[in-house]
Amino acid sequence: MDRILILDSASKHLHLFSKDGEYAENVIRFEDEPNDICYIKDNLIAVTIVRKHIILLIDLLTKNITKTIKVEDLCFGIESNGTTLVVILGAREPELLTLDLEGNIISQVTVPGKCILRMTLHYESIVCTDFKDNLVSCNTNKGILSWTHKHEDFLEPLGLAIDKHGFIFVASKNSNKIVVLSEDGKTSRTILSKDDGIVSSTAIHIDKLSSTLLVTNLSNGDAFVHKI
Length: 228
Description:
Blueprint (H helix, E strand, L loop, with lengths): L2 E6 L4 E6 L4 E7 L4 E8 L2 E6 L4 E6 L4 E7 L4 E6 L3 E6 L5 E6 L4 E6 L5 E7 L2 E6 L4 E6 L4 E5 L7 E6 L5 E5 L4 E5 L6 E5 L8 E7 L4 E6 L5 E5 L1
Antiparallel strand pairs: 1-2, 2-3, 4-5, 5-6, 6-7, 8-9, 9-10, 10-11, 12-13, 13-14, 14-15, 16-17, 17-18, 18-19, 20-21, 21-22
């Protein structure tokens, strides 16, 4: 984790920090509220602008928007494997839309859930959090449900990330907890809480090379890096 990007939806800014947490610069200010961010490859990232139904591809070196991709519904969480983008469309009847980097549709599948806002990719599977049903689900890339998992500390779960061993880390906004699940979704335990500074955490990221976990708080603007 050489650099850290923080997307601030309230101020509509994308901020760059050093790996030690020192503020570096404001990368870009958006005209409309951004929702999620993902790394694609090299210096290229993607950002969803939920109410405008667009995905922006941004070059971090030039700080320019290199492409604007229009989609047909509200767009929330986004992930990439370096060659394609997967984005959540429509929270109430959620769909997973897979696109190439030119914006051409590869696939579009419906996934079960009441309020799917965030997901992450894991081989041929897509793991999602359901903000209303308080659970985590795993689906195939064809939209077939593989498993669901509930935990007593899942209260409005949102951000999630997967480490190099396949463990799934989930930020639960209203319980102020970070819960980790096994790869098969059969076991789970709480690893971080309010005692560790977790307050209304909604975004989470794992750098697999350094085995570090980044957690950001919605309520007070604090961010923490933990070794895992």
